[in-house]
Structures are given as structure tokens and as C-alpha cells.
Design a protein that fits this description.
Blueprint (H helix, E strand, L loop, with lengths): L1 E3 L6 E7 L6 E3 L8 E2 L4 E4 L6 E8 L5 E9 L1
Antiparallel strand pairs: 1-2, 2-3, 4-5, 5-6, 6-7
The structure holds zinc ion.
Zinc ion (ZN) binds next to loops.
């Protein structure tokens, strides 16, 4: 599974499936880290440098999951 950049559509990072409910985590082999400034957290796309803004959400099973909400340049 791959998380794609919302701007250029290239791969931001790989994801691994944690369980049968569809929860995922970032594959540790992917060289990307969650960055943040004073307002928000984001993944910077290694291809186009767009900021993929991340929001924390909780699944229906109560597991915290990161979700990309939108992109900023
Ligand atoms: Zn990109």
C-alpha cells in the first residue's frame, strides 16, 4: 500500500496494514518523517515539495490514524 502525494500523485511513503480492520502505519523502511510548524503537521513530498497536511483522526474502532486532508505548496 502506498500513500500518494495529493499534488503530484507520486508515492509519499509506504504503508503497512496493521490488522483486518484496515488500520495502517507508515512502513519504517520509508525515509519520510512527519514535520510540523506552529500550525499544522505535514509530510513534505520528496518529489514536488508540496506539504501534504495531516490531520489525526480516530477510526470507528478507536484507533488513532493519520489522514492527509489537503495539500499546500
Ligand atoms: Zn508531490
Amino acid at each position: 500500500m502506498e500513500e500518494k502525494c495529493r499534488k503530484c500523485g507520486k508515492t509519499l511513503f509506504k504503508k503497512v496494514l496493521l490488522d483486518e480492520q484496515g488500520h495502517t502505519a507508515i512502513d519504517e523502511s520509508t525515509p519520510i518523517s512527519l514535520e510540523s510548524d506552529d500550525k499544522e503537521s505535514f509530510f513534505k513530498c520528496p518529489h514536488c515539495l508540496a506539504k501534504n497536511i495531516v490531520v489525526s483522526s480516530t477510526s470507528q474502532y478507536g484507533v488513532p490514524q493519520l489522514r492527509i486532508s489537503h495539500v499546500k505548496e
